[in-house]
Amino acid sequence: MEPAAIREQYAAVQDRLDGLAAGADPERLRQLADEVLMVARLMNREPRLRRALADISRPTVARVDLLRQLLSDKVSDDTLALLTDLVSGRWAVPSALLDATERLGVDLLLAAAERDGELTDVEDQLFRFGQIVEGSQSLALALGDPTVEVERRAELLRSLLEGRAKPTTVRLAELALTGFGGRSLLTALTRLVELAAARRDASVAYVVAAVVPTEAEERALADKLTQMYGRQVSLKVEVKPEVIGGMRVRIGSDLYDGTVQRRLAEARALLAR
Hints:
It is a peripheral membrane protein. Its main location: membrane. The chain is α+β, with helices and mostly antiparallel strands. It has three domains: 1-116; 117-200, no CATH class; 202-271, Glutaredoxin (3-Layer(aba) Sandwich), CATH 3.40.30. The chain is 67% helix and 9% strand. The protein is built from 13 helices and four strands. It has helices at residues 4-23, 26-45, 47-54, 60-71, 77-87, 94-115, 119-134, 137-144, 150-161, 167-177, 185-199, 215-229, 260-271, and strands at 202-209, 232-239, 247-251, 254-257. It has a four-stranded mixed sheet, sandwiched between helices. The longest helix has 22 residues, at 94-115. The mean pLDDT is 92.
């Protein structure tokens, strides 16, 4: 989750993005996302540019003029307006502006998936892909090795996902591969899952169980969490037989551990006193 200061600065561009998403064609939103992410890559490569655009000691008009000079005839008017909103904000550090620019590109891709009716599928596919990577040490090393060119790792990723996942899922997974938000691959995938859920006004609950819950059990748990948190909750279930029985649920910073594994650990701790 971003710090409150970043969320506050992002709010202005969020309003413009939502206005665009309400009436734009999904393909148009994907084009805007490509343009925004192109600018994010430029900021990432050029630290001096990033610092100049985020330097609050310079007047806002000067920073916006620099942005316009840089992107004139290279991006659409809508993209320029979105980025102008970002650059006009007060960013504590240049990396925060870069993170917000990448977040904007992601939100545009998620808005396109929402318009296509694929947002829930994208969310689930990103989570499942993260589970596959986490469950295979060799795959995690192959995809996360920083000494290997990103494009080679992206080719491997596409060979795994293309034809099996939505194109937006593949595009977002590629972004996670390059360290979305300066994160590791698995952490970036988790963040993308949560952003997809947030696009649906939902929170993500990570559930660990010894066996696959029934549909009725999942529905009852989702309903209970929705009542507790006052918003929709999206369950992401992982099966781990080592917990023996019960469930462990993490939502945000809250953890509810009702597993037999935890109870046995508590019993052993008591016996050891």
